[in-house]
Each structure stands twice: as C-alpha cells, then as structure tokens.
Specification:
Length: about 150
C-alpha cells in the first residue's frame, strides 16, 4: 500500500515528525554544578595521597603495604626495616598467593592465599636480607622484600 505525502503526514495518518523534546527538572541542573562536584571529588581523592602532615611520604619509607593489582605486586621491591609487618592486599576479584622463594624453588618461609578482592595477608620478617616471593598460580607475578636493620 503506497501512501501519499500530505505536508508532514502520510495519507493513512502516520505522523513522521518526532515529538518535541520536553525539558525535565534534571535537565535544568546547572552544568557548572557538575563540573564543581567533579573537581571537589578529585581534590578529595588526590588529597589522600599526601602524608598526615600534608607533605609527600618519603620514598622507601617502609610502610610494608603491598598491593596486588593487574597481576603485579606493587611496590617491588618492598623496602622495610626488621620487624615491620608486610601486608599484601588483593585488589582483584581473583585468587592470588604470596609464596616465599623463587618460582620452582620455594623456601617455606611463608605461603599465603588471598582468595578475593580486598583480602589481606601479613608477614613479619625478623632478619635483614632480600626475600623473593611469587604467586604460585600466575606465572610472571614475582616480587621482592628488602629487609634492612
């Protein structure tokens, strides 16, 4: 069935014009408010990157915190003093291990499993030295702890 054009309508009555856009209250939200909210959120997030007194943390300060993210340990090497607890936090939704020793030659000092995101495991090393570790599940995930007196 062929229709004939009559202005903006087809002969059998179908309107081909789109309905006019109706402004809603949400559309009236000032765009400057969105930008300001974004900048405030970014400032609060980045503000947490400095030390407690507002200065940047010293390099190699030795907090003992190691993050697991993107199939890597960070920092590596983790530098700590004797007796400082080293805590790994799994930042991924998959299982990882923290197994002491080099791959294919573990030394049995520790073997930790972090099953899920935000899981943590802690080890305290009481002697100075360099301690390699790896994820027994994922090849290429290797790290080092450097313990100084």
């Amino acid at each position: 069935m062929e229709g004939r054009w009559s202005g903006d309508r087809i002969a059998w009555g179908c309107d081909i014009r789109p309905e006019p856009l109706r402004r809603t209250r949400a559309m009236n939200f000032p765009r400057i408010g969105v930008a300001a909210a974004f900048l405030v959120a970014a400032g609060l997030t980045l503000g947490g990157c400095s030390g407690s007194d507002g200065t940047e943390p010293a390099a190699g300060a030795g907090s003992g915190a190691v993050a697991i993210k993107s199939f890597a340990y960070s920092p590596s090497p983790a530098k700590v003093k004797v007796g400082t607890a080293v805590t790994w936090t799994n930042g991924e939704d998959i299982r990882h291990t923290v197994t002491s020793g080099k791959r294919n030659s573990t030394d049995g000092k520790f073997d930790l499993t972090l099953d899920a995101k935000d899981a943590t495991a802690t080890v305290t090393l009481d002697a100075p030295g360099t301690f390699p570790y790896h994820c027994a599940i994922h090849p290429g995930m290797d790290g080092v702890i450097e313990v100084s007196a």
